[in-house]
Amino acid sequence: MDLTEKFKMSTEEKIEVKDFQLIVGNLLRYGVWISLSIAFIGGIIYLMNHGSDLENYSVFKENDTNIFSVITNVYDGVILGKGEYVIFLGIILLFLTPMLRLLISLVVFYIEKDFLYVFITMLVVLIIAMSIFFGFSH
Amino acid sequence: MTVLTFTLIMLLGAFLAGFIGSLSGLGGGIIIIPLLTILLGVDIHYAIGAALVSVIATSSGSAAAYVKEGITNMRLGIFLEVATTIGAVCGALISTIAPTSFIAVLFGLTLIFSAINSLRKKEEHIVLQSTPLATTLKLPGTYPNHHKELVAYGTKNVIGGFSMMGVAGMMSGLLGIGSGAFKVIAMDNIMRIPFKVSTTTSNFMMGVTAMASSVIYIQKGYIEPGICMPVVIGVLFGAMAGAKILVKTDPKKLRLFFAFLIIVLAINMIYNGLNGKI
After folding, report:
1. Domain boundaries in chain A?
2. Which of A18, B16, B129, B248 is the most buried (most CB within 10 A)?
3. Cβ contacts of residue A98 below 8 Å, gap of 6+?
4. ipTM, 2 decimals?
5. In this complex, is the C-beta atom of B144 within 8 Å of any C-beta atom belonging to chain A?
6. Tens-digit pLDDT profile for chain A (138 aa)?
7. What domain range includes position B267?
8. Phi, psi of B277, deg, nearest 5
9. Which positions, given as ranges, span the membrane (chain B) (predicted)?
């Protein structure tokens, strides 16, 4: 491969990475708006059904539900059209936007053949995955 | 109070918190907690959960713009996220067993520290040399200045910055805040990274750091949908309104006023925490 070809390849790669950053930016923005719209719709449903109830937010009800049962509960609640679970769905989607960003960074580092950073990004993903097990209710 | 009235009050309060958080540079999450606990009597665990949700929303929303402009140092951010996520998991676990009064006092102290820190004069400094470890990790980078020229900068004391980031992550997990003040100290004062890069990179990192504690928060029941919904929407719109004003003016006097207001709230929180009222 001669030098001009090599140069051409590296600029092409750079353009690809730049496109990726644009995708990351847009995904984050849309992710936030989509999840907030879902939470807002859930909020309206919740207020229509419970708006005149008395609030009891000064007392903390500690839970010990593991994340998988929470997700099952949210799924069941959304199907039944319960407002609070629709809000919860929006919040879970919001929590997933940074994870999406991490996974895209992983792809970008892989394309750049920066294996040190592929490793570091995977380490961060692993720590977050571990939080699920550490936080498990026993 | 009925749920509807309370929701509307929280929406308005969260808008104000987002607005003040953006003007003072403290972030909406750190202001919503005293607002919910002291003024509205919400339990501190719910307040922390709602603050964490709004931290993720503002971070993901604003990181989008900075990534595009090339100011955020993605490698630096991801490398330091190793420290902040470990810290955040530890912090969230501690928060589930720590007494409420301890959390309230710690929060008050953090609030005072952040408010004073926000008044500090920010001088742009650039170091050109980097330590060998920083070079191995490819941390030095470039950023565009206002003439759109690329400015190169070096990075110092990687281990010191990494450790401070662990502390920042732990505060984030314990209190549900973005702990921007701690992050900027780690990058600015310890690693000697230019201010513009450290602020945007800190913002970029907040979402991932907050996510590390979110699973524990969800499992323990900190996330109350009825509180999170008005809070996250209010904070986000408040922050957007604040950012629009920031572009037009540099509100020095406002900043001083808000710092004073926040310190009063913080002292109130410490006092209530010590008396066991929170």
Report:
1. 3-134
2. B16
3. B56, B59, B60, B207, B208, B210, B211
4. 0.87
5. no
6. 444 554 444 454 555 666 766 777 777 788 889 999 999 999 999 999 998 888 888 888 888 888 888 899 999 999 999 999 999 999 999 998 888 888 888 988 898 899 999 999 999 999 998 887 776 654
7. 3-274
8. -90, -10
9. 7-40, 46-67, 79-112, 158-182, 203-223, 229-247, 254-274
